[in-house]
Amino acid sequence: MFTQLQTWARRLKKQVFVLYYAYRDDRTPWPAKLIAICVVAYAFSPIDLIPDFIPILGYLDDVILVPLGVMLALRMMPDAVLADAREQAEERMKGGKPKNWFVGALFILIWIAAAVGVVMLFVNR
Length: 125
Prior knowledge:
This protein is an all-alpha fold and 125 residues long. The chain is built from five helices and no strands. The longest helix is centred in the C-terminal third of the chain and has 23 residues, at 101-123.
């Protein structure tokens, strides 16, 4: 079972790399590009929407949201774009994954805003 989980995770990682190259292609239609950008930014972000230290919920976003987003974005991509992106992804998989620090900073700001909102809610009572 552990081997199957590792294989699934490797395939998912490769698909995210495919999306990374596919959304950068000029032949990609803008709706597919928009979804792919969101999925790739979230997958490569150093920060999760739901932090992993929260029991059960922390890993649900990685196990459910990312695969669903990948599946949706891949279905919207033209075949020629996917073929080229798969070749580029194979080469990139030999290195590390790109990081999206902008999206990471955005999630930090969202968590700070939520914390400030909760504090303000209790202070104003």
